[in-house]
Amino acid sequence: MSSLDALFSPCSIAVVGASERPGSVARAVMENLRCFPGDIYPVNPRRAEVCGLPAWPSLGGIGRPVDLAVIITPAASVAGVMAECALAGVKAVVVISAGFKETGAAGEQMEREILAEARRAGIRLIGPNCLGVMVPSAGMNATFATRMAVPGRVAFLSQSGALGTAILDLSVTEGTGLSAFVSVGSMVDVGWGDLIRYFGDDPGTDSIVLYMESVGDATTFLAAAREVAVRKPMVVIKVGRTAAAARAAASHTGAMTGSDAVFEAAMTQAGVLRVETIEELFDMAEVLAKQPLPRGPRLGIVTNAGGPGALAVDALVARGGEVAVLSPETLARLDGVLPPHWSHGDPVDVLGDADAARFSQAVQWVAEDDGVDGVLVVLTPQSMTDPVAVAAAVAAVGRVPGKPLLCSWMGGDAVRDGRRVLNDAGISTHDYPDAAARVFAAMWDRRCRLAWLEETAAGAAGAAGGCEIPDEAQRVLREARADGRLLLTEAESKHILAAWGIPVVETVVAVTMSEAVAAAERFGYPVVLKLHSVTITHKSDVGGVRLHLETAEAVRRAWGEVEAAVAPADFGGVSVQRMVASDGVELILGAVIDPQFGVVMLFGAGGTMVEVWQDRVLALPPLTRETARRWMAGPKIHRALLGIRGRPAADLEALTDVMVRLSAMMLAMPSLVEVDLNPVVATARGVMVLDARMVLAPPVELRPVVA
Amino acid sequence: MSSLDALFSPCSIAVVGASERPGSVARAVMENLRCFPGDIYPVNPRRAEVCGLPAWPSLGGIGRPVDLAVIITPAASVAGVMAECALAGVKAVVVISAGFKETGAAGEQMEREILAEARRAGIRLIGPNCLGVMVPSAGMNATFATRMAVPGRVAFLSQSGALGTAILDLSVTEGTGLSAFVSVGSMVDVGWGDLIRYFGDDPGTDSIVLYMESVGDATTFLAAAREVAVRKPMVVIKVGRTAAAARAAASHTGAMTGSDAVFEAAMTQAGVLRVETIEELFDMAEVLAKQPLPRGPRLGIVTNAGGPGALAVDALVARGGEVAVLSPETLARLDGVLPPHWSHGDPVDVLGDADAARFSQAVQWVAEDDGVDGVLVVLTPQSMTDPVAVAAAVAAVGRVPGKPLLCSWMGGDAVRDGRRVLNDAGISTHDYPDAAARVFAAMWDRRCRLAWLEETAAGAAGAAGGCEIPDEAQRVLREARADGRLLLTEAESKHILAAWGIPVVETVVAVTMSEAVAAAERFGYPVVLKLHSVTITHKSDVGGVRLHLETAEAVRRAWGEVEAAVAPADFGGVSVQRMVASDGVELILGAVIDPQFGVVMLFGAGGTMVEVWQDRVLALPPLTRETARRWMAGPKIHRALLGIRGRPAADLEALTDVMVRLSAMMLAMPSLVEVDLNPVVATARGVMVLDARMVLAPPVELRPVVA
Description:
2 copies of one chain form a homodimer.
Chain A: H1 5-8, E1 12-16, H2 25-32, E2 39-43, E3 49-50, E4 53-54, H3 59-62, E5 68-71, H4 75-88, E6 92-95, H5 105-121, E7 124-126, E8 132-135, E9 140-143, E10 151-158, H6 161-174, E11 178-183, H7 192-201, E12 207-212, H8 218-229, E13 234-238, H9 243-253, H10 260-270, E14 273-274, H11 278-290, E15 298-303, H12 306-318, E16 322-323, H13 328-337, E17 348-349, H14 356-368, E18 374-379, H15 387-397, E19 405-409, H16 413-424, H17 433-463, H18 471-482, H19 490-499, E20 508-510, H20 513-523, E21 527-531, E22 545-549, H21 552-565, E23 574-578, E24 585-594, E25 598-605, H22 610-613, E26 616-619, H23 625-632, H24 638-641, H25 652-668, E27 672-683, E28 686-689, E29 692-696
Parallel strand pairs in A: 1-2, 1-5, 5-6, 6-7, 10-11, 10-12, 12-13, 13-14, 15-16, 15-17, 15-18, 18-19
Antiparallel strand pairs in A: 3-4, 8-9, 8-11, 20-23, 21-22, 21-23, 24-25, 24-27, 25-26, 27-28, 27-29
Helix pairs in contact in A: 4-5, 7-8, 8-10, 12-17, 13-14, 14-15, 15-16, 18-19, 20-21, 23-25
């Protein structure tokens, strides 16, 4: 028995704080548990009976094994109840009671106490401040929601209880079945990682849907998601895309929400599908659970009207899908059953007077075409149309192994019964054909991601292994620390990069004008002069960069200009380097430490226009060569790397190499909290870092650990 | 009586081709017309009675005035029926019959014939190949759709009959009322422009919704849209966003679909709201018809659950809306009625146990706050929630003049009755709070566009006035024409620009190496050499551009390299110009002729990376200074124009001037079919065109006009 089995398949449930008071949460829980086939023990010292069941004065008095205790007593009493649970041998607990962290410091302290009790006794705990737990197929509804979900194969994990009630109501109305509903509450103990692993292993669950306000323990969550997403579709909606929304969520749960772009990158790498609307959340979860993933992007569309077909094509192509090209054989077969003026291609317009036989015959032949990876059937209720008969006929013939079948019966009352016929046959329906086409494109996207996940999983494990820190890099860090500096100079940053084997343009620090000229003469003209400063990091912004210097005189003039541009305290001389020819593509590579997800790497268009284009992608290391190559293709600047306007392609292998080395460096040197390489110039001849800045973490102060 | 009144408010209707045959289109029309309060005359020479009404052998035999004839006879007979209509004094005609243009050349010829008959008799005609026309408030359903829409204030014009049937069915189910439904069919006579003007003037119509596959007569459509969109919201969904979808639409209607980006630009300038999904189409139409436009972007959200509120904030901010900052007075009032741990800000979380009084009191106070431009109320069905009572209370207090009120009662069966209460009170409801927030943001967007439309309408009228073509520009065109060339050289293109007062860098054509050196000496170094060719237009791509030439020797070497790069026939010497300092922002300005919308101007990021960034906006001239300024702010490169990294802002007035002059030039010189100015460099010192290419229209051959 897994440690969470007592939560989701208990044989006996105690309800601590059970009550009959009308309108109370406790009464709602008691009523919802009425269908539970196992033993129910209401615990209430002031009542002999609750809701028709004998009540027990205390957990200890029950005298029989209790798998799960549902606690609905006031917050201040919960720690005490937890201690009783430990004595009574309760295996798992759901704390529905609110009034903890979300109410302030005192509540937070109570939360720590109940967690300590749970840990001491080895009890797993969901909540506090949650709606409860529901397992429809087991007849178990340990929530105070007003409805029980219909049994099904989607596990729904929600960080908002109220949103959960709305979704439950909707899923009952629309017949979307759930394998479990878990309101996670404050997640003091059982969190995303535990639940994802549990339902990843649950044979009754085909897909997992998450409504998320905060990530919580990101490492555990990511590890579980990476492991499970390969086997089962995971779909997440996360609030906090915008800073304003993050504030709203924070004031609601008292939890911090991390940077949205980092979350997005983490989901992409873990193979989790992120959606933006609640509607998409359930559309996707249902389809992914019911239908196979397509093996290609080509959708065959069979419709009894041209307009809806065209709308579907628009949506399909916009999301990366393709319109199928039907084979001559399929076209000939269709010619045999369709009226002469059918559309003679995909979308297949079977025309407004199509009956069930014509419609379903066309669906079958399109589905059987080797050039078709999935089928969308669109019906509009025209005067000759029988939506129910068409639904039955399509359900009978349309499923070809390995190819998803999506249906959109458009309209209201006229198509309601037809939709039900399709749903009963296990075919999910979509209100609009464009929405269905988007779902197909998302399914193809998921297939692509899975392939990527699988092929890189092994490599990533290898790449994560600890690298030796080069001595030279260690030395630079030590010296800066000894100086009490957190900001490394350009020259120091380049030393570290060079020590890791990342090509940098050779840079000499000159503290006098004549040293600068000497360096320039050694490199050969033209050269670049840049401000050397231990205080100023964005040199361009203060006029601290002089390019295209062709003579010693120009170097001397530039020295004077740079010196004049800043305060004496900020001027530590200049760095001199040769002027690299401007025929390359300017890139940015960087890394920062995210408080939740750790090291986050950045790649995109570099140079002074970096803020204008904002053309960048994020990734979590370790990067293998394979992931680096895929990552590289993300931003628009990738197109320039492939060669434009007669310019040859850049050396992508060299760029891959730099990315992998940067990933290894960031993992090996955790004291680097910010690394910014801009510009990095890529040409056919290689890749070179022209400018670099690095920031160190402040020294760690040892503080007493708060228990 | 407007020329279309006979179509939409006829006193008498003849049905030519009336029939009782079960399942026939004609029978469906007869049954649908049963509720029409005026006179119905079935015309069928083989029957004495059709569907209980006396039938007439011919239109001429009726002997009483016929306002509208609905024609359902075979295609080949329709021209003859039209002739009868003319003799019988019929004022308007709806041709439902199919089998015209969409079947090929013969059908197209028949279509021309029925149009000729209509024009001859002054009869306005809708169709052919359409579903018909419906005016619910008049009890008129001259379609073969299976349902009559409920009366309302949205006019729905659809180019797909079948999609129309689905939407009608849905609108009945959801209670969305229509003032009219028009299936436009092939639009041989009555087109978008006529219908938009008609419903623009119709007092029973508050908003106009279009499902569009082809624009048809773009000039008429645009003129009508510009005129009406200022007064009434217009929402359009147009298929053909993608080339593949355009193909699907073309095979369906036989109509051409223009470039989608041009259509988008035209809609933006006309003030028409374009949506991407059918769901949005009706959401927007309904809300715009029922609710005032907000005066600002600040949405107040009142919710009984935090999660849905956070989702709404995400959607709101992503679309340009803002979370309202509540005044201290409002916060104090809310403190008085809400439990202590309410959210103390927007979104206002009234908490899960909120009853109708608490909920509606919060809504009222938020709505009354001067810092709130609109209110969204979100309800989730929690155990203590009464969705109907809250709906009634909110409907009673929530409407503040000038501020839209949107509601999202989340869930299925549990909230159905509550939604109905809101709908009955004239408040539109949305299934999901994020969708409602997007609608609010779109309403604010529309308000902004209206302001823009109004302030520029007067200026545009002035700017459209014909400009004199400068003599020098005429001369260049004449010479190229005399040479039989359609492609102008860089030097010629710059001459034309200069003649229009657009600053160009001075460029000298050198046909010998020594001429090139002499020109360079005159300009002073560094200079640029470019291939001069009457055949090759993209000079960079063939290695025909040499920058940064510092000496006479470098000029001679560059001459040799450019000459060697192309075939002798393509080499006409070089153009020489001084090298402009590279501290400016590289832009592209251009114009092409769109087959439907005429001149289309383009502005965006220029240089060799133009295809990488694809950072561009389109506009239809004439541009006033005001529209040019707004247009300029569209692409990302605008941020660079405002000054980045210590670089001063570019001279935006000079750029505005160039845009307005280019607009005037394009309108005055219609033989310029392609103009490409790239790069145009903008600095604080002004704007200068560094390279230019122009293409002329082929000479017009006089062909006999086909009648």
